Amino acid sequence: MSPRSMFKGSLLAGLIATALAAAPAFAQDAAAARPLDGIAAIVDEDVILTSELDRAVANVKAQYANQPGQLPPEDVLRRQVAERLVLVKLQVARANGSGIRVGDQEVNAAIANIAQQNNTTVDGLRQRLAADGLDFDGFRESIRDEITVQRLRQSYAQSRVQVSESEVDAAMAAQANNGTQYHLAHILVGLPDGANAEQIATGQKKIEGVKGLIDRNEMDFSAAAVRYSDSPNALEGGDLGWRSQDEIPQAFAEMLKNMQPGQVVGPIRGPSGFQLLKLVETRDASQAAANTQKVTEYQARHILVRITPVQDADAAKAKIDTLRARVAGGAKFDEVAKESSEDANSKSEGGELGWFPADAYGPDFAKAVTSVGDGEVSAPFRTEAGWHILQREGSRETDVTDQNRRAQVRDTIGRRKLEDEYNRFLQEMRGEAYVDIRTAAAPATGS
Fold it and tell me: Can you give the residue ranges of the PpiC domain (predicted)?
């Protein structure tokens, strides 16, 4: 059974969420006149079209349709969104240069998922886009870019982010002593590398002004983050989500011990600039961690007949039927597997797969292994790999509480490290690139 990567997860999760948030914007401004396209920004050898920027701005406005007062002025919003698009262009270019490619089949699958999440079909999504004057090919390319960025981020994590067992041990010990988790938000006023005295003074004056607005209840924290924060999560109200103590820099962790939900502290000077930190709420995670978690595991052997260009599905099915008949006639399963299985990884072991949870090899394999009893041989079944039969050797209930907790802690530490490292990586790319944002003003529309 292969271990699961600490950064494994659906590549589609982020882009589906984006598409869902964007969906209301499809119906926005349908009757409005549309200007001729132009260039909103130049990014190295690529460009951001005005139509791209308009669409992205409309999507953000749709997300804040019920809270329009939280958005900054139009020119500020357009510049914030343009900066996001710049980072996407830079990441896609870096990914392409690293050999990362996203095929049409993956894009088609992602679009089908987005359509399903929006309770429509791909054709229905295409028609909705067309009705709003949005180009389906452009939409496809934006989805391709989203997946590409996710792949680059994963590649970066695998090559740059390592979590040691000692780090996991220390974090688990800390959790045992303090099971509190913190929901945080922040506002960042960024400073350039090597900032001079004047830049530091300007940044400090700005963050103190923002803090004053919040303290005087002239603006809530989320609205201030959207309007003034230089952080990449500004348009999310500066929300940092739930974090355990081991995910928080030590200087902040000490402050949080004495804070009450709703309290804001700062300004705090950090490597990236000045920050305000808000404790939104807390929760006790120790009880959930203490609950016993069990999973049913199975031990099984299998025989695989692959579907290949020279052995089609019908031929593979006929062969697996013959092998199943041999086993039913008294032949030993492991000997047939050694002789005829086309799974190179298990053939020499008589098809032995060891102990694994039912879902380890996909839903079809899970259905087969759970549908037979110990010692029984399944009917032939098909997966993406080809046609199989399996012999279930045993089943057991396994306590995976500690194993799961370690995996969760490892993933948590990895995400924290990745967030810090990847943000620096983005800043470096942005600093090294030629970027000319030509206008942040909204384009004039014709009558």
Answer: 179-281, 295-394
